[in-house]
Amino acid sequence: MSDTPPQNPDFDTMTRDIAEVPAVEVIVTVAVNLMSAAAVKLGLAPQEGEGDEHKDLDEARKLVHALAGLLDASTTEISSFHAAPLRDGLKSLQLAFREASIVPDEPGQGPGEKYTGPIYG
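Given the sequence above, the corresponding structure tokens read:
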């Protein structure tokens, strides 16, 4: 056993670091994290072996819906330079969800379609 006490995070430094990050960067980072997590839950992430090991459509639905809501809410806050690729990624995830579903949702009822409108593919 070590006699060294556990290191406590320096919250003052962490707060200063967060304060320096522009809001657009935070929004884009969160969106990319949601996209990545959704891709894994849709079984799209390259993996050794089967690839569907982490597939969970219920979880993917929640992540895609949250991503769509975030993008919808931040439309006026981030430039089209940032928004366009995120919207393209969202649409790809929505189409992948529809394709992966045994019984696809009706158009307009899929994850995030409340915000984006119906996705056809």
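The longest helix spans residues 80-100. Try to locate this feature in the token string yourself.
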